[in-house]
Amino acid sequence: MTTLTPPLPLRERLAEYKKLMRLDKPIGILLLLWPTFWALWVAGDGRPAPWIVAIFAIGTVLMRSAGCVINDYADKDFDGHVERTRNRPLAAKRVSPKEALWLAAGLAAASFLLILPLNGLTLAMSVPAVFLAGSYPYTKRFLAIPQAYLGIAFGFGIPMAFAACRGEIPFAAWMMLLANVFWAVAYDTEYAMVDRPDDLKIGIKTSAITFGRFDVLAVMICYALTLSILGWVGLSTGAGAVFLAGLAVSVGIVVYHYTLIRERDRPKCFKAFLHNNWVGAAIFAGWVLDYWLR
Question: Which of the 8 DSSP states describes residue 92?
Fold first, then answer.
């Protein structure tokens, strides 16, 4: 006779949901927030409406949480074979797949309700945003560089921010999205360098595997393209010396990342990944101060 595992007490179950949504690891939220905030400040000419900023900030947390749940659902049969992920709630069977799907659906629904006060274009853009967030985890099965798809999913708040603030999506918004794609490839390759031995064993595709011995070079090229494109966007939208100073700080941070990843030491690669929060923050600070001083 099979013995059923008793359900977890409510407090423990909520703690597992928190882990499933990665609320205990806010780096993913920050990596989504910075590009969204860049876009909100540019689209709002340095003074975006506070209520729109609040909607996008909360919505980013909700959709990132939903994306993490879907990611773990998609990888539930793989995570148990990876040292860093084997204790995640789904992999360790502390949360059921059905629970995870209901949680993801609830988070996505809450996010949609949140943006209802915004204009029709923003609402329409939410449809591909949800599709991108939900489909990304499955791209690791067939795309050689799924991190590029992640960059689109993580950066889709950029065109949505322009849609919300201006009712249109100019060329600069799409260029900012392209910059975010290169940034995501850079930082998520650093992340993938940590898991490369495990990913090779289980057959998941990542940029770290695809780039092979050129992984460090590829990361640095992607950083260079990110900052070059953002520099063009800033100058083309009237930014000046203070914005460029923020970019210069981010260049210094990127050089530091090179010193961390060049030996491909797994803990140092993970440290570089986490440190990308400061890249995004430096760019944002430069943009905000530049607008403030105009």
Answer: T
Tokens representing 200? 């090779």
d(CA 63, CA 238): 32
State pLDDT tens for residues 46-72.
999 999 999 999 999 999 999 889 888
Query: Average model confidence (pLDDT) for the chain?
Result: 90
> Which residue carries 């909607």 as its tokens?
55
Q: How far is CA 136 from CA 47, 59, 68, 148, 227, in A?
A: 33, 18, 10, 10, 24
d(CA 65, CA 61): 6
For every residue of 212-278, DSSP letters joined together read: GGGHHHHHHHHHHHHHHHHHHHHHHTT--HHHHHHHHHHHHHHHHHHHHHTT--HHHHHHHHHHHHH
Rounded Cα distance between 165 and 53, Å, is 10
- pTM, 2 dp: 0.91
The model's pLDDT over 217-239, given as tens digits with 9 standing for 90+, comes to 999 999 999 999 999 999 999 99
pLDDT digits (tens, 9 = 90+) for 70-110: 888 887 776 666 667 777 888 778 888 898 899 999 999 99
- 204 vs 201: CA distance, rounded Å: 8
How many helices (H) and strands (E) the chain has is answered by 12, 0
Rg, C-alpha atoms of the chain: 19
